[in-house]
Amino acid sequence: MNSYLTRQEIKDTNSRQVYSLERKIQQGEFTIESVGDYLPGNILVTNLGNLSTEYMNRSGCNILKHSADELAEPGPEYFQRFFVPEEMNVFVPTYLKMQQEQNPARIYNFVHRVKTLSDGFYKWYFASAKLMYTAGSTIADKMLLIVNESNSAGQIAKKINNVLEESDWIKKHFKQFCLLTKREKEIITLVVSGQSSASIADALHITKLTVNTHRSNIKEKLPIKTFSVLYRFATAFGLTHQ
Questions:
Q1: Does one domain contain both 158 and 184?
Q2: Exposed/middle/buried for 227, CB within 10 Å: 0-12, 13-18, 19+?
Q3: Assigned domain for 62 exists
Q4: Are 238 and 133 in contact (CB under 8 A)?
Q5: What's the total number of domains in the chain?
Q6: Rounded distance, CA 10 to CA 154, Å?
Q7: Residues whose CB falls within 8 Å of the CB of residue 46, separated by 6 or more in sequence, listed in order
Q8: Which end of the chain is more exposed for a tag (fewer CB within 10 A), N or C?
């Protein structure tokens, strides 16, 4: 990977990484506290209940010149202290909207400025945010973010890849996964659980014709020919019943 990436490359890479990191946390492979300091760049968790910074890795603390406890203490005032108000008034409401929607597949990418109190001026950062689910949970009240200074995103992305060891399967199929609608993902879950179009129609309160239309659209979006490959896709992206 080159050190300098286009905006789209940064978006694609960060999206995969925050997705992979959150999936590993949800599956219980590790906790954010156990891995955060080993990841390059800035990793943080925002508690959406009180808008406090619940976790910040060492890298982020070093940039902001505060300990994790100091960053957690001010609660929502944290956003006032380090961010441009006009930008904060966009991304914070988006966090809360994502919390209401509870869409485990949605990733929010945005560019914003961060001000460190030591030098008093702003730098541009690129952020990818995703709801963070714990093992066995279906409701998330925390937001996981990977945030990196824009001009270093390429170097950071390569290092994060090495630590996370993202699977080739997720890398290869992530864009196709993002093309799927929420309904199409629901239907994939039911298909790989062995349900017929008729039973899926009953479960989702739609017609069998509508189900078959969705299935046709899924086939167009995914380069998948067999049930076993579809099952592997569903497992990789958390579309199977736990």
A1: no
A2: exposed
A3: yes
A4: no
A5: 2
A6: 7
A7: 52, 53, 54, 95, 142, 143, 145
A8: C
Chain centre distance of CA 227:
27
CA angle 93, 97, 100 (to 5 degrees): 140
Least confident of 28-42, 90-104, 120-134: 28-42
> Cα-atom radius of gyration of the chain, to the nearest Å?
19
For residue 66, the one-letter residue type is H
Output the pTM of the full model: 0.74
Structure tokens at 172: 């290869």
Q: What is the mean pLDDT of residues 118-146?
A: 89
Residue 122 dihedral angles phi and psi, to the nearest 5°: -95, 145
Bridge partners of 123, per DSSP, are 114
φ, ψ of residue 42 in degrees (nearest 5):
-105, 120
Report the pLDDT averaged over residues 9-34: 86
CB 157 within 8 A of CB 17: yes
How many angstroms separate the CA atoms of 145 and 163, rounded? 16
50 vs 157, more confident: 50
Both tokens assigned to 49: 């209940």
120 and 225 in a common domain: no
